[in-house]
Predict the structure.
Amino acid sequence: MIDGDNQILPGSLKDIIPYLMDNKPDIFLSPLNELYEGQINNYSWKGIDARQLTQDKVIKKFLIHCELQAHFTGQFFSKEIIQEISFPEFICYEDAWVFPLLLKLSKTVSYSSSGHYLYHKRKGSLSEQITSEKISLLIEATEQMNVNFERNYLSLISCHWINILHKYEQKIKSIEEVKKVKRAIRTVGQV
């Protein structure tokens, strides 16, 4: 998927498409190249550097959130995987909600450390304007990690819950949601 105001780095698709045709992964993932307003675009395509990952490895990369984030844009998904999911009716975080299920359903995942997607980060964008409604959606999306991943990932999932509490506790709209986040953090001690 490509968002209308972002870009694919020139030359990248001529490498990626043959790789997808030859290897037929359920999912092909790569990091986003983030370009902030006013920043000079020094990104260029470095060539495909793809390798197959086990489901365990890709889930850990996703949960650790450094090399891989829950962005649908710039990623490639097989038609069969996409047909098994439905997106929630969210104003944001819909990709974070569906990503754990996509990873759970995938049998073959390819990951390239070379990013082909140029993601323009703009001030005042939807993702930068955090409201209590958006935090509620983030909480719902984070719950999907618990739903779709096994218990042995709880310690990594708890980092997401801790981050929500740390960054947004004052903006969470209900006491019940605060309790839900704290309860999710406490489950780590039960592992």
Q: What stands out?
A: The radius of gyration is 17 Å. The beta strands are 7-8, 27-29, 32-36, 50-53, 76-77, 109-112, 117-121. The mean pLDDT is 90. Residues 132-148 form the longest helix (17 residues).
